[in-house]
Predict the structure.
Amino acid sequence: MEWLACYRTVLAAAGRDELDYPKVAGLPLLRDSLAGYLGRVRGVRSSVETVMVTAGFAQGLSLLCEALPRFGIRKLAIEDPGHNNQRRFIEECGMRTVPVPLDGEGVDVDRLAATGARAVLVTPAHQFPTGITMSPARRQALVRWAQDVDGLIIEDDYDGEFWFDQSHRPSSLQELAPDQVIYAGTASKALVPGLRLGWLAVPPHLSALLSKVRSRHDLGSDGITQRAFSELITSGMLDRHLRRVRSRYRSRREAFTQAVELHLPCAGIVGSSAGLHAYLQLPADIEESPLVEAALRRSVLVHGGKRYQFTPGERPPALVVGYSTLPLAGIAESMFAIRDAVDEQRAARGRFATGGPVAHRRAGQRKAVHSRS
Ligand SMILES: Cc1ncc(COP(=O)(O)O)c(C=O)c1O
């Protein structure tokens, strides 16, 4: 509704200038609103000159992959586990990827340094897919690494608007070192992915180069959408929308946590309570792929953790579960269905484990848990 109101306002006021070619880096109007907004909500240090509007993070990443070789950077370190489609995308854009393992505090900076890479892509607020939040010490170590190698950190803040944990929400990594960190945000989780709207806040020396690279691909993002998004920010409607959806997602996250405790006490949720998905670590005896298939037979769609591992066998079995689109009751039913599938797998091996009450439901009653990743 808010989006429609903003779009109407913009269209009603649109004259010749508003319908002309936008600047390739984005309308100054939106870049200015974004700089203010990102400073206020994520601590990002940017200005109209250093913000670029993109068609989602995907376009921002492809522009960076094209620009980094100009600085002699041809390989990009990525988190392991990480986003498998993103890895493929980066390689198709011509960069080599080097997976670097994580520990409980985030990406392992010593292992990163050993790769010889000078650029890394990280998800510090809520690591994808594990949900781990990078510790303050690790953030400092990562920034020191970037300064030592004259390198760059790409901070993918894909779901930074959604923080439900008791602890203080970490602000952006970019705040610590704006000359070393490229901050990337997106409307894909906060609004919808179909808008194809994202933004980069880049170190000043990258701005002109990125615009030049981009002008070879397109002549900028749709100006009407940019104006409407600026209106959404400056009118306070984005804040209002986020307050509303945050509260909806928070209750789903709580329902998910309760359902895991009740139906799957053998599993553990890894990472912070944030974002729209959770990483569920399973006991070592569970076979992940058959469990994913058995869940699907019960109309529950989840992904196995292995799908995101670039070095197989390093982590216990796990499920990546998206909970944002389900009704509350569906979350409990889905966890119950997974429990049922766990019991089935263990019983088939002649063992009998999980403990706690077991009830039976018809398969048709269960809902799918979709992960949008
Ligand atoms: C890890 C990660 N980064 C970034 C994005 C957003 O990409 P885009 O802005 O291209 O939709 C997603 C998906 O929403 C994601 O899962």
Observations:
- The chain has two domains: 2-235, 243-365.
- Residues 355-368 have pLDDT under 50 and may be disordered.
- Residues 243-365 form a domain with the Aspartate Aminotransferase, domain 1 fold (CATH 3.90.1150.10).
- The CA atoms of residues 105 and 138 lie 6 Å apart.
